[in-house]
Structure formats: C-alpha cells, structure tokens
Amino acid sequence: MFSKLAFVILSLGVVGCSLLALRQSRLQVASELTQAQLRINAADERLWLLRAKIAQGVTPEQIELMAQSIGPLRPVVEAPTPQDLLRLAEEARLREEAISKAAEEAARRREGTRREARR
Q1: Of the candidates 103, 20, 33, which has an alpha carbon nearest to the alpha carbon of residue 111?
Q2: Do residue 16 and residue 61 come from a single domain?
Q3: What 3-state class would DSSP assign to 85?
Q4: Number of structural domains, the chain?
Q5: Segments of the chain scoring below 50 in pLDDT
C-alpha cells in the first residue's frame, strides 16, 4: 500500500513539474514575441522618421531637374502596336472557342453516360 501511495505522490510531482516547465516555456515564448514586436515597432518608427526627412529634402522641382539632367527619358516598356493588339485579341478569341468546344464535348459525354446508365 505504501509503495502505491509513494508512486502516486511521485507521479503527481512529475506531472506538476512538467506542467510548470510547459508554463515557463509558454511565458518565455510570449515574452520573446513581445520583444520582437517592440523591436519591429521601433524599426518602423525609425523608417517613418527617415522617410519624413527624405520627403523634406526632396521636392518635385528637384526631381524634375534631376530627370532633365539625365537626358531624354523613354518608357521601359513600349506601348503595344495595333498589330500586337489584334494578335492578342485573336489569340483570346481562339482560346475562348477552344474552351467552349471542350465544355460542349464534356456535356455530350456526360449526357451519353447518363443515357447508358438509364438502360
């Protein structure tokens, strides 16, 4: 009887210690998460301060002067030609036709299998 009681007491002690360890690790993770969020908030504040300083130092007139000093600017991507637009429209039309044909064929197959199932 004494051994059973000792075993129960030891088991409860082990369970209690493991619960305390789990609780401690959960608190530690929560603390680390909070510290990470505080560091992120501080970095965001510094970022916004730097952006405000940059915005104060750069005016639209200065940007325009810098762009003019580089030389004539041209777009990175050229506008599509009318031929390109026609080709793209034709490709889209052909895709739509192929999709509608495939849908019709699938509907015919389903109808055929339903008819065979009824027989």
Answers
A1: 103
A2: yes
A3: helix
A4: 2
A5: none
